Amino acid sequence: MENTAILREWFERVDSERTGNITANQLKRALGVGNLEFPLSVVQQMIRMYDFDRNGTMSFEGDYYLQFVALNKFLLKVQHAFSDLERGRGFLVPDDVHEALVKIGFSLDSPAFYSVCESFDQKKNGRFRLDDFISLCIFVQSARNLFNSFDTSKQGRVTLDLNQFVYCSANCRI
Questions:
Q1: Mind spelling out the 3-state secondary structure of 133-162?
Q2: Longest Cα pair distance anywhere in the chain, in angstroms?
Q3: Which pTM value belongs to this model?
């Protein structure tokens, strides 16, 4: 779906109200058609990751189509990493999740990795279905985006006061 014309066609089908914007509910329904079931909060976070004008929707007009293209590229990258490692099982185990995260470009230390895995292992059985893995990746990407906004010197370290920490936590929620 990298072709802009194909993305536009898909966008227009999802924009059932013909407003020129896709809401979280519309995106959730469209993903559900593709057997990707997410809580509304995860879909809202998907939109927040690339919502340049911060209106809670995705648009395909003007330069805003880039937000939709960026989300699509991210989801394709995550799906490919999952597909490369699921070995016909339909799920990843934690070692696979770690390898997939590295393929995507995320490098977490062990405590952070296991904490994230524990949070996104919905059934607590060590098996991550595609939607679980996508949710985990959305969280990690959102956390990275927020971290980078505070890491202005690009040194990989930030200092936050309580207000900034609360702000980050609220913006990474799923």
A1: HHHHHHHHHHHHHHHHHHCCCCCCCCCCCH
A2: 46
A3: 0.84
